[in-house]
Amino acid sequence: MTIDGPQDLGSDLSDEVHPKERQRGPVTLRRERSEEATTTDQRLLDSRGPSDWVHTDPWRVLRIQAEFVEGFGALAEVPRAVTVFGSARTKREDPEYQLGRDIGAALAASGFATITGGGPGAMEAVNRGASEAGGLSIGLGIELPFEQGLNPWVDLGVNFRYFFARKTMFIKYSQAFICLPGGFGTLDELFEALTLVQTKKVTKFPVVLFGTAYWGGLYDWLRASVFEGGKIGEKDLSLLHLTDDVDDAVSVVEKAYQAWSDAH
């Protein structure tokens, strides 16, 4: 549809002020942009044509929407849950692998579903511990060039293209985060969670750092540099709980969940 500019508002309204325009759904095209020879549905129905359009930003929006729909649909009935992060590089013979299994099993025994990134290493260990203990073991995978899909201990798995869609699922369907020793991915999720709690986007959401030898240096830096420098407050620092004890970690989660449950 082509619409001419107003004709009855006076001769001083030039074509430059009111140029011809074309509507493409909710999008308005003017000047040279309006001179398309075909319509969107015509290009869709006439021929197959180049496939470049599936890589354009408007099409990606539909993929993003689909990821949220699939994630919400798959996880909507998940009971109370805890997300556990940790390194994909943790070896099965590493003591941290057994700790992951112990944490997964302890969460299952306390009635929590366990969510991980679904990959190998510490994530596999946690999923394995939860599954072996009869709990619900969930993996939210991500498309990466160097990992081979979900680990075999995932009972319910969802794969994502986009990190931000996956991150939303971690937060939305978890009552807490437990961070085993990990790399950039674990740090990313850790500080995202802290930011969301600090800004009250989520409430009653504990973050447990498991492994004082590993995380102690980070905590000390936060206190000595970030807190002492006035960049965070005492309440912000108290959002983190350091421990080496599985029962202590689960107790923190249980208390926070009970506080949340009492408030709702």
Brief overview, please?
The protein is α/β, with parallel strands linked by helices.
Average of the residue pLDDT scores: 86
- Give the helix tally: 9
Distance between the termini: 52 Å
At CATH's second level, what is the architecture?
3-Layer(aba) Sandwich
Radius of gyration: 25 Å
Strand content: 15-25%
Q: Predict the CATH topology.
A: Rossmann fold
Organism: Actinokineospora terrae
Pfam families: Lysine_decarbox
EC number: 3.2.2.n1
Catalytic activity: 9-ribosyl-trans-zeatin 5'-phosphate + H2O = trans-zeatin + D-ribose 5-phosphate; N(6)-(dimethylallyl)adenosine 5'-phosphate + H2O = N(6)-dimethylallyladenine + D-ribose 5-phosphate
Structure in words:
Residues 15-36 have a biased composition (Basic and acidic residues). This protein is α/β, with parallel strands linked by helices. The chain has a single domain (78-263), classed as 3-Layer(aba) Sandwich (Rossmann fold). It has 9 helices and 10 strands. Strands 7-6-5-4-8-9-10 form a 7-stranded parallel beta sheet, sandwiched between helices. Helix 3 packs parallel to helix 9. The longest helix has 19 residues, at 57-75. The chain is elongated. The model is unreliable at 1-16 (pLDDT under 50).
